[in-house]
Amino acid sequence: MSEGRKRRWGDRRDGFKVKVPGLQTVMACLMPNRTDCECYMNLNLDVTELLKFIEERNASHPEYKLTMFHCMVAALAKMFRERPSMNRFIQGGTMYERYEISFAFVARRRFTDHSEEALMFMVPAAEDNVESIAKKIIGDVKETRKSEHATGGIDELLDKFAAMPKLLMMFLIWIIRCMDFWGINPKFLTDGDPNYSSIFLSNLGSIKAPAVYHHLNNYGTNSFMITIGTIHKEKVLMEDESEQIRDLVDVGVTVDERIGDGFYFARSLKLVNYLFSHPEILLEPLDNPTGYDYK
């Protein structure tokens, strides 16, 4: 990753400018809207070994129970560190790579129809592993659910915007979008905003819903939207040509195709599948190499 890299001319506060092939440069100008360049993938990930790992860890560490969502965050963070081109975005017709990996997701304050949702934002450190990530997520969600109302940050800012007269709000949003294009938005507008995260996650499996397609946004820098569906059993043809009943989870991935090519995306997602098959790797710091053979 690029922590500690000095900012140079042309860099943004949240990412540094990268040189890319001519095709990607032209695509960024010909197709300036992120929503016009969405590539959607629907995956079925085998989580049989992962569920066994979670059950064993929770039996010996009952104070912080791991979930598949925690493991998904850890696996994606590890993949992004090993595959840094996944952590790129295009804004203002220019390609940038982020200085850090960030996750955004929504936590419902209560599981009722009219309960408010809170936006959560986290940046895992290089020394984090799945257990420390789980503790951070559990702690943040508990703090959020103490109140039925917004607890500050981006939620509070959105409430202030919503209270403005419509014309004033639209004028200010136009100014914000112009600053967003040039990468000069003030920090208080972007910190904690999921539109500026590396990955926006939606855990639909927690409400017993399947993974769905979810669009990206033109505002901000987010290039990945991932929805996680329900765990189900399915007959799978294994490499030795035997058939087994395995635990699978459906995952929907929407990505800005301008930041890379399909070959790079496919190999990166295969790494996540490998980590789910070898979940003990998630106990190691994110900076440790996975040892995955990309051949």
Largest sheet: 6 strands, mixed
Q: N-to-C SSE series?
A: EHEHHEEEEHHHHEEEH
Q: What class would the helix/strand composition place it in? A: alpha+beta
Mean pLDDT score, rounded?
87
Tally of distinct domains: 1
The CATH class is Alpha Beta
Rg calculated over all Cα atoms:
20 Å
Q: Give me the CATH architecture, please.
A: 2-Layer Sandwich
Characterization of this structure:
The protein has 295 residues and is an alpha+beta fold. The chain has a single domain (17-145, 194-283), classed as Chloramphenicol acetyltransferase-like domain (Chloramphenicol Acetyltransferase, 2-Layer Sandwich). Helix content is 34%, strand content 22%. It has eight helices and nine strands. The chain has helices at residues 22-30, 48-60, 68-82, 130-144, 153-162, 166-182, 187-190, 262-277; strands at 15-17, 38-46, 88-91, 94-98, 103-108, 117-122, 199-203, 224-237, 243-256. The strands form two sheets. The chain has a six-stranded mixed β-sheet, covered by helices on one side. Helix 3 packs across helix 4 and helix 3 crosses helix 8.
